[in-house]
Amino acid sequence: VGTFAGTILKPVDKLAFDPGVATGIDGYVHNTGLLAEANRVIYGDESDPSSYPGYVAAGAKVNISGPLIKRIQLALGIRISAGNKDDIFDRIKSEVASVVNNTDIGASIAISDIIGAAQGVNGVLAVSVLSPTYSSSNDLISVQPFEKPLILNVDTDVLLALVGE
């Protein structure tokens, strides 16, 4: 593509963006949920100064960030008694993801809670942990105080193997 090939490109601004300066809040400093509330408490809120007077000295910067995401990946061996294997596996993945994703920031996960969630699905006869290593001395998935444990993708983070076909 170029003038030597007989091609000339010209921007025509078909999206009709306003070429002027837009004032407002930088998208990278806009927060919602808990981070927004922390910002209101620390910096104050001009619309509600009695509830949010602010505590940071003028000109000071305090960085507020969410927890570090700790991706949890598991492999379980499942023995089913009856039912559609695919449906049972989907329900197991959902239950296990619920246990992990509802764990608080910095709280370790008991592997027995994961086994219990999988065992509670109708049609499951037995559950064994293939990964991580599960023993009497290794019964927790450790999480640091600044980490939030999450299963990001149930299809790749919760691997299930059918045992005893």
List the helices and strands and how they pair.
Blueprint: H1 33-43, E1 68-71, E2 74-80, H2 85-101, E3 109-110, H3 111-119, E4 124-131, E5 140-141, E6 147-150, H4 154-157, E7 158-162
Parallel strand pairs: 1-6, 2-7
Antiparallel strand pairs: 2-4, 3-5
Helix pairs in contact: 2-3
> How are the strands ordered across the major sheet?
4-2-7
How many helices in DSSP terms? Answer: 4
Radius of gyration: 25 Å
- How many β-strand stretches? 7
The span between the termini is: 59 Å
Q: What percent of residues adopt helix (DSSP H or I)?
A: 10-25%
Task: Describe the model.
With 165 residues, this protein is α/β, with parallel strands linked by helices. The protein has 4 helices and 7 strands, in the order H-E-E-H-E-H-E-E-E-H-E. The protein has helices spanning 33-43, 85-101, 111-119, 154-157, and strands at 68-71, 74-80, 109-110, 124-131, 140-141, 147-150, 158-162. The strands form 3 sheets. Strands 4-2-7 form a 3-stranded mixed β-sheet. Strands 1-6 form a two-stranded parallel ribbon. Strands 3-5 form a two-stranded antiparallel ribbon. Helix 2 packs antiparallel against helix 3 (111-119). The model has no long low-confidence stretch (mean pLDDT 85).
